[in-house]
Amino acid sequence: MSRFIDRKEELNFLERKYKSNEAELLILYGRRRIGKTELLLEFLKNKKGIYFLGRLEAREQTIRRFNNILAEFFKDFELIKNPLNTWDSLFDYIAEKAKEKIIVVFDEFPLIIEKFPEIISILQDKWDNKLKHSKIKLILCGSSIGMMEKYTLSYKSPLYGRRTGQWMVDKIQIKYLPEFFPSYSLEDLILVFSCLDTIPGYLVKFDPNKNVWENIKEKILTKGEFLYEEVEILLREEFRDLSNYLTILSAIASGANKFNEIHNLTLLDKSLLSKYLYVLEELKIIEREYPIIVSAKKQIKRKGFLYILKDNFFDFWLRYVYTNKQELERGEVDLVLEKIKKEINSYIGRKFEYFVKEFLIETKIFPFTKIGKWWHKDKEIDIVALNEQSKEILFAECKWQNKVNAKKICKELAEKSQYVQWHNEQRKESFAIFAKSFSKKITEFQGRKVYCFDLKDLEKMINTK
């Protein structure tokens, strides 16, 4: 099922570049399943443009296929009789035709680079001498983030300094989740978010006419389904030996977020572990999370951080599919599903923090310049949002529970907030609590303003049904 949702910013960027009278060399990149191809096809609608998808095939086939696409697009049947058989001649042909505005998209460009490493240097030459003087809108798109950065964005790349724009396509905003699942309650959507994140390629795999648990059972836990082996398939595209990477990722998913914790669980050599973690960071599979307020000493030494998985689907899959693979392979899906149901509130509790953080970023109900988690020794606050200009600071706790005692939470926040070293004498503090429901909401605590948001409040603000 194809549902094109959101992407207003990305489309505005592409439209702005399209309307310019200059030649444009644009780099579009982002992880798989994020919706890059759908974005490009949406942009190409009602425009004069060529779309070429890189794929695994012989060099000669790639050249011939592109030649034939050009022949068909320009209605130039001479190209069929006497095909062009080099990238030099193909780009020369395009430059000749690009005296008027034309879009040329190379999707999955890293696959083309693998077959034709020389294409980058050829493109540099053709851009400098011909294409940049034309009206072409050339878009290079790819899912291998490492390769796209190395060959198109890095200062070592022949294309460095030639691109006229770039965009990393990321997840969609949480406010668009209801458009995928119009009949779902906010509680349902938060469960979907916890399982799939806001990755379009995964969201469209769930059937909006079935409940969330049916979808989890049928689309994630059932052998043979797209999502059942998705993580292994994605990792296999990047690594030859999956075992160590899966071991590390599984450790992080289980709650081992510090280097020594990961080392103790995996028993990998420390220097080897450092290398693996670096690679996973470079591929944007994991990231380092620092406390929102960190000492200058730790910042310089880059210490005091946690390793976290960058998307919820990887987390859910590693936690519930990978660790239960033996049972799932035997077809014991219902058994695993019941196990997940018993643990899910604890799991969602962690994801609810990220959901709320995105909610605050998108709604801008508190004018902050920085937002994140804070911790120090045994103290931790789920979300701290601060404004460097006004010296306002918001301390927030997220509780995936019913009938939450707001006063008790505020008392705990007041105690923990004393340890947060940030403009202590000047700052203006306020508290926020996010919960499924409250026993009683409050609006003030010890002179501080208090915001209490339950699911009904969030639902109204996100416009769900």
What does the secondary structure layout of this molecule look like, with pairings?
Elements: H1 8-19, E1 24-29, H2 36-44, E2 49-53, H3 59-74, H4 78-81, H5 87-97, E3 102-107, H6 109-115, H7 119-129, E4 136-142, H8 145-153, E5 165-168, H9 177-180, H10 186-196, H11 200-203, H12 212-220, H13 230-238, H14 242-253, H15 259-266, H16 270-282, E6 286-289, H17 296-301, E7 306-309, H18 312-321, H19 325-329, H20 333-363, E8 370-376, E9 379-387, E10 392-399, E11 404-405, H21 406-417, E12 428-435, E13 438-440, E14 444-445, E15 448-453, H22 455-462
Parallel strand pairs: 1-4, 1-5, 2-3, 3-4, 10-12, 11-13, 12-15
Antiparallel strand pairs: 6-7, 8-9, 9-10, 14-15
